[in-house]
Structure formats: structure tokens, C-alpha cells
Design a protein that fits this description.
The protein is an alpha/beta fold. The protein contains seven helices and 19 strands. Bound molecules: NADP nicotinamide-adenine-dinucleotide phosphate.
């Protein structure tokens, strides 16, 4: 079996950018795209904040451009999921359904998945008033009444950001204490457009073609009520796609890959690099993912050079 120079696992903005850079560096990269290629942007409608597209662009179209640019410089693609890896010795092994690949270096860019409440109405109204990304969709809700679910930094950040567009934002949290950092809490609590509903679970997002409200239950009293709104933002966290990496690279308690030598993208395993949302607990933007994909490509290139003395 031929030992590849670089295998890239994952195909969002980070992975594709790593593909473009490693291909242009003549490393002949191979990308394990996954069955659902393109990452979270494939689930987004209009992307208005990716530089270079002043009129905005649809998420899937943007990812199509990324992929085409990879292909232009010779990146090879495998449209299957990676099921497990063996990084215990070089060459590193990457297992797919029914196939194993070997490489001198691996770039992991498998991203993160939005955490959802898991109720039927949330799924049904996704893209019709239900969203998980204020940065992506906030501008579509000018003058609207919005609900944000969650009590962490993401929820506070989304709530604050949404007040630029919304007439009001109601944060609904399942406890009476926020998990968010003090500074983010204070910012939200001091924002006149933001109010809080505590100790409440979401039973159902209301509406047929668009969101009209949410039915909630007070977990202390059991009382149910309906809160009217036109937009419903879920901000209860993300889950990094690292299940297949357990025991192979160091992960933090939430499963994010830990970078060991910032500002490089090196993990604790020499020759394994990580970029994009799989290692990012703070920014999680397409443009930051793309930037870190470029960093991983350059890190991998330098690592390969170091192997040849
Ligand atoms: P998080 O800190 O895990 O908070 C998630 C919040 O959602 C918690 O309040 C949690 O409630 C709630 N929640 C979780 N599952 C729920 C469910 N099924 N139903 C209802 N509520 C649920 O996640 P995060 O806010 O995305 O933050 C993740 C990390 O990124 C943190 O380290 C954070 O500091 C960082 N971050 C930083 C910034 C910033 O500094 N600008 C911005 C965003 C994120 P409980 O509190 O009851 O558990």
C-alpha cells in the first residue's frame, strides 16, 4: 500500500482550505470527505459574512467553490466516513468502511455538530424561523421578537448580537443560574432589549410555515405558557465530531482536540494536526476555520520537510 504524504479527514471550510494549500505545495493530498461533505455550511442558507462575496452566497454554493478549488490543484476525494484511526505509530492509519489508508501526516478537520433540543417541532421549523446561528441568520429577523434557548456564553453572545436586529430577545434557560462567564452575563443583563425566563423547558416550537411562538413549562411549578416570537434560536452548545479519535489524540473534557503548541495546529501526536471547529471552542466561523486550515497545511508541509532532514 502506498503511504500518502497527507490525509485530510473532514471537508468543511478548514479541510478544503488545507486541501488547496497542500495540493498547491505538491503534496498530492487525499481527503476523506465523509458521506455528508461540506460541513455545517451545507445546512446554512445565505452566508453574508464570508469576505469576498459582497452580495452574500448560499452556504452549499460556497462549499462547492471550495471543493472545486481543491480539485483544480489535484486533491483526491473519498466520499466515505472515517470510522477509526491508529495514530500510535507512523505511518498513521485511517480506516474507512472497507478500506485503510496510510500517511506520514494527517490533518483532522471533522468539525462540530450543533446540539439541538431534540423536539420534533424544532426540526420541522428549521430554516423557517428556527436557527442555531445568530451570526448567520440574525439579519433576517429585523424588528422581530426572538427567543434564545441556553444559559452559556454562546446563548449570551447570540442574544446580545440579535438585539441589533430584533425588537426584543427572550433568553429561556432550564435553570435559574447562567453558566456563562460574568462579563457575558452582565452584558446580557444590562441590555434593555433582553429579558430572561428561568427554570423553563421548551415543550414545543409553535407554527406551521413559520415560527409563531414557543410553549414552555416551568420546571419548578409545572405551569405551562406560550411565549410569542417570530424567531427561535437554539444556543445550547456544540459537539465536536471526535468520537472516532478517542484514545488517539488528547481531547478536552467536551471532546475538542487540544492543540499543544499554539499558535501552530499541532496536537500531542507528532505529525497530526487539527483545524476548524473540531479544535475551536471560541470563534467557530467559516473564515476562522478556513484560516486554521491554511495553518494546518503549512504545519504539515514543514513537518514533512523535517522528516527528510
Ligand atoms: P456551554 O457552556 O456548554 O453551555 C450550554 C448551555 O446550554 C448551558 O447553559 C446548558 O444548561 C444549556 N443546555 C445544554 N443542553 C441543554 C438542553 N438539552 N436543553 C436546554 N438547555 C441546555 O456551551 P456554549 O455556551 O456553546 O459554550 C461552549 C464553550 O465555548 C464555553 O467554554 C464557552 O466559554 C465558549 N464560548 C466563549 C464565547 C466567548 O467568550 N465569546 C462565546 C461562545 C462560547 P446548564 O447550564 O443547565 O447546563
Amino acid at each position: 500500500m502506498a503511504v500518502e504524504n497527507v490525509i485530510i479527514i473532514g471537508s468543511g471550510p478548514a479541510g478544503y482550505t488545507a486541501g488547496i494549500y497542500t495540493a498547491r505545495a505538491n503534496l498530492n493530498p487525499i481527503m476523506v470527505e465523509g458521506y455528508q461533505s461540506g460541513g455545517l455550511l451545507m445546512l446554512t442558507s445565505e452566508v453574508e459574512n464570508y469576505p469576498g462575496f459582497p452580495k452574500g452566497i448560499q452556504g452549499p454554493e460556497l462549499m462547492g467553490h471550495f471543493r472545486a478549488q481543491c480539485e483544480r490543484f489535484g486533491t483526491r476525494f473519498i466520499q466515505r466516513d472515517c470510522t477509526r484511526v491508529d495514530f500510535s505509530s507512523s505511518p498513521f492509519k485511517v480506516y474507512l468502511d472497507g478500506q485503510v489508508l496510510e500517511a506520514k501526516t494527517v490533518i483532522v478537520s471533522t468539525g462540530a455538530a450543533t446540539k439541538w433540543l431534540g423536539i420534533e417541532s424544532e426540526k420541522r421549523l428549521l430554516g423557517k424561523g428556527v436557527s442555531s446561528c445568530a451570526t448567520c441568520d440574525g439579519a433576517f429577523f429585523k424588528g422581530a421578537r426572538l427567543i434564545v434557548v441556553g444559559g452559556g456564553d454562546s446563548a449570551m453572545e447570540e442574544a446580545n448580537f440579535l438585539t441589533r436586529f430584533a425588537s426584543s430577545v427572550t433568553v429561556i434557560h432550564r435553570r435559574d443560574t447562567l453558566r456563562a462567564s460574568k462579563i457575558m452575563q452582565d452584558r446580557a443583563k444590562n441590555n434593555p432589549k433582553i429579558s430572561f425566563i428561568w427554570n423553563s423547558d421548551i415543550d414545543e416550537v409553535l407554527g406551521t410555515d413559520g415560527v409563531t411562538g414557543a410553549r414552555i413549562t416551568d420546571v419548578k411549578t409545572g405551569a405551562k405558557r406560550e411565549i410569542p416570537c417570530e424567531g427561535f434560536f437554539v444556543a445550547i452548545g456544540h459537539e465536536p465530531n471526535t468520537g472516532f479519535l478517542k484514545g488517539q489524540v488528547d481531547l478536552d473534557p467536551k471532546g475538542y482536540i487540544i492543540l499543544k503548541n499554539r499558535p501552530t495546529t499541532a496536537t500531542n501526536v507528532n505529525g497530526i494536526f487539527a483545524c476548524g471547529d473540531v479544535q475551536d471552542t471560541i470563534y467557530r466561523q467559516a473564515i476562522t476555520a478556513a484560516g486554521s486550515g491554511c495553518q494546518s497545511a503549512i504545519d504539515a508541509e514543514r513537518y514533512l520537510e523535517s522528516l527528510h532532514g
